[in-house]
Design brief:
Largest sheet: 4 strands, mixed
Number of domains: 4
Number of helices: 15
Helix content: 40-55%
Strand order of the largest sheet: 3-6-7-8
Strand content: 5-15%
Number of strands: 8
Order of helices and strands: HEEHHHHHHHHHHHEEEEEHEHH
Distance between the termini: 84 Å
Amino acid sequence: MNKEYISKRKDIMIIDDNEKTVTCRICGENSSRIYGKHLKFKHNMTSKEYRKLFPDAPLSSKSDLKNTTKNSGKHMKQEKYKKMFSEMFSGENNPNHTSRATEEERKSRSPFSKKFIKYENVENLEEHISDFAKKALKNRIGSTTIEYFIQKGLSEDNARKELKERQTTFSLEKCIEKYGESEGRLRWLKRQERWQKNLLENGNMKCGFSRISQELFHEIFRHMDYNESQNIYYATKNREYFISIKKFGFFSYDYVDVSRRKIIEYNGDSYHANPKKYESSDYPHPFYKENGPTAQEIWTKDKLKREVAESQGFEVLIIWDSEYRKDKKKIIEQCLNFLNP
């Protein structure tokens, strides 16, 4: 399509975008919507191409958009349609499957991506995407929420049972059963790592540690008779200490005295599911709730973390945040006694 021709046509046509109709910027025709058949059969053009030429031009009238939004997807709430739709677009049938679309094409279709086609003229893009994500996910009800099972007609007690069963589909035991000892443990560990990474990015532990834990470690360091040659590691001194795990990555430890082979782990009550406060089936993480790991999964990961350290000859002491806040002097003495038996 000749751009000069389009420009001339646009100069002489009367544009009347109102409640009931919008004007096609190419031919001047007014209709409730111009995307789809109008662009395809009259101008051999896609909506994407039209938007590039006329980024500020609407594709549908206000009333059409309102009616479409109001009635959109009503029938899909029925279980038979949900199942049918899922089968139609699962796996390689999905237009965004890696076998059917390039990475660039998938990004251009996703409103969570910076390359989403509708974002070409959006200012403050990252802020816009963040706001969109918050609104889009705020009321989402998926199979990892109790509301999902209650909407299916289950009582609250039965809904919790179903939810617990759903959450245990990715337990360490399930992974090992499905993929074998080595691959199953690796897959489970990688999921824990993604959870932890998300917490660091979206929680209040921006640097991977809490300020109050550093307060304790500074006090310990101050009271210990350390020589410069001794290797002491914590976040704000020499950074945290890491132990690598083959094929997986590593575990980081809060306070490590390499010479004495001693480790102190400072555990937040929610982040590490203090067993004095949580049952095994609880979802203690403040940022995940019922979408995150159960207390049992957290305990399993932390147990493995301790075992990895112990396999390297370290002794491990666990300090709970609530215990330290309750009696700081007592916990400092406990730590010093642990380091200097």
